[in-house]
Amino acid sequence: MNTKKPIGVIDSGIGNIQSVINALNYLKIPNKIVQNAKDLHHYSKAILPGVGSFKYGMKNLAQTSFSNSILELVSLKKISLLGICLGMQLLYEHSEEDGGYKGLGIIPGTVKKIENKKNIRVPNIGWRKIIKINQSKLLNDIENDPICYFVHSYACETQDKNIVTGILNYGQNFDVLIESENVFGTQFHPEKSQIIGLKILQNFSQIKKL
Asked: Is the pTM of this model over 0.70?
């Protein structure tokens, strides 16, 4: 019997959480869907998946009160949080999307539109190589420059480059993997990135509480 405390998968209505749950189940990592923000304090680890627009995502987090719970638990270091795709972007202070919109402000930085250049398609969809630039808990025991699956039109620009552990060069450099104490983010979809993505989720599940 697996007695390990489950990971909470936040369901705030901003993304398809089933693929994340399927990946965790495949790895036999205990998990539960969290639909009530008040229940988040029962978990020491949580995943915030997300797809769609930044403004829509922030409005949903506010309406469901998850924004307040996340900010409180993260600041008190009572939870380790992994944001995926839009879930990572929402951790930042601000996004240019929808004419500009304020984020959770956990990570200093801005989410910017990917420039549409020659040979650079927007949105960025497909398998891309991540360049590891700092020591990474999420990439532990993973080969250098792993290839993962991306779907996004906006990308993160982080003020503190010391917390950036992976970047993507797609016409320019984007921060696609961050690790700041108990806060983690992946611009790519680990749950759709096959063996490497599964290993990243497994690594997150094994990170010890601060």
From this structure: yes
